[in-house]
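DM from R.C. (forwarded with permission)

"hey, sorry to bug you on a friday — could you get me a structure for this? deadline for the figure draft is monday and I only need the backbone to look sensible"
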Amino acid sequence: MTGPLPRGSVRRQDQMGETMQNVERRSMRERWEEAHADARFRPAYPHEQVVRWTFRTLDRRAASTTKVLDLGCGAGRHAVFFAHQGFDVHACDISATGIAYLQSLTERLGITIQTHQTPGHDLSHYGDKSFDAVLCFGVMYYMSIDQAGQMIREVYRILKTGGKFLCVTRNDGDGRRQHAIFLGRCTWHITALAAEVASHVETGMDMLFFSKSDIEEIFRGRFDVCIDRMTYLHHDFADDDWVISATKIEV
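My reply, with the result:
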């Protein structure tokens, strides 16, 4: 039977753990820099759910005075779509490569988008009640559960009362969970995705998968929400997401 480790050994193990966490954080950032440098991960067209939400929810007659944030914009397909609709568009992302590509697009297309590089859970750059609408498409599930909660609180802070929030995030029926190890609340480590799966680059990542009750709990008390499900089947593999359309309420 192994006895307790000496105090110095415990300290060294803690330091090693912190070092590994820092390496993983750097690795995640590097993955996004690599992904946004690859044309395969720079889709040109907005997703149909975003187009539908925009036309149903946002007042395009007042577009020039409607301030919209694309949170986790990547290479900017949705920010560009919003700008083409005439909105006052802001966009942020963790990736300098993604932001640089979006800036080059704005110059080429002759549109205006204000960009800022930051992790999705840190919106301190933006003022209280400064946005009419926020989009977070395919971003929250790459955060830790604590970061996801912080992001929701930050979106609430920067939205005006009655402001609109569209969040698309993975649910617990997604096919990636079949290739993952459970780590804790809503959190799984992706072990090995087949090379033919478009998102095989996610192998080795930690990822959040939410049940409907998880989503209801995270948004409760801050937003009126409508939760829909969006599933795409690729042979035996399912991309399965929650589509959360929310309106900020005062508490």
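R.C.: lifesaver. DSSP finds six helices and ten strands in the chain.
me: no worries. The beta strands are 67-71, 88-93, 113-117, 131-137, 159-170, 180-184, 187-190, 206-208, 223-234, 237-248.
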